[in-house]
Amino acid sequence: MAAAAAAAPQKELIRAQNGVYEVTKPLATGTFGSIYKAKRESDGKLFAVKCESLNMKSSLLRQMSVVLASIHYPSPFFATIEERGTVPQRFLFVVMPLYGDNLFDLMHNVNKDRKFSIATGLHLAEQTLTAIRDLHRNGFIHRDIKPSHFCIGRETEDQYHHVFLLDFGLCKRPRFGNKNNEAEEQMRKNAILYRGVVKYASVHAHQGKNLGYKDDMESWWYMVLEFFLGALPWALLNKESEQDVLHLKKRITAQMVSAVWKTTPETVPAFFELLHIVREPKDIAEFVDYDRIADHIQKLFEKSKANPQEPPDWDCMNDYKGPSYQQVPMIAPPEVGLKPENTEFGKNDPGPSAGGQQTSMEPVKSAEGNGQPKKKTKKKKSKSKGAKGKNRSVSEDEG
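The structure assignment produced for this chain is given below.
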């Protein structure tokens, strides 16, 4: 009996500056790290702990910390960081509030046809629009807009109908000719060269061009279109067929979408007006007309005869009570300063986990660093016609 008790598994603990967190279960793993559900020992409150190997060549968690520290205009649609730290010689981590399901999982699991109802899709379009607008208002582009980077709140926190933007690790300042100051230009250069996934990438991203605010919004439009169709017209094409995807995106028409938009095909022309608004700006430094897009979303409610009070698809017993779009003044991004100070993970290194116990959980081993010496390999030249040097990086990961 004593031997069995001695063999009992130890708790997996992470000690941060302001608390000790017991890791309870893995939530997700990806190319750039892992996320775990954790319980704060002092009060039992649940959090999400995002971990990233110290061997990563470019740190998304550091970038995320700089971006959120530089937010001049706070937004209720942004995920937040409770605290951050380092487990020496192993990984960086950030402690964040625990949110609900992401929109990709909701879309595929809530309804049998793997798409949202019109009312739910329009409400999600409105909230995700607001989140992206608020990010742009602070002078950042996201570069990886997709359903899995948005999630709903938790029912126990009374945020079950509220949408949050989760991931800021790939954000950067757009390059506006000579307008960027030295700190902004350095941050832009340090940002990971990434242009999104094939399914949602903008036309400019496929072409390897400099990206601006309208490129995020073009990705947003593809995401919202998927909310209603369940699958985009190019969903079956992969990265090897990227030029075909680009061809479809450049030539997509209301007639093409009407053929597969079975529920309310009469709303398709009005929905395409959103794409025209998104693509209106001629300069990457120009904001999209977010207010006009929000107004068109309200008109889509009327055209589709959808009830704005209809319960969301994941909470069919309660009327919708999520936040609505509110107009805000937009300013020129160069007026918003960076605040990279006080975002260093090393300033609150926790050392060994509490009680002398080491955590056994590890962030996912990335292609950029897995703790082993790298073998030198010859880099293959990209054959894609739309690519130019190191600016070329459109991922096939669509999750």
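Interim note for the steering committee: The chain has two domains: 10-98+337-364, 103-330. The first helix runs from residue 2 to 6.
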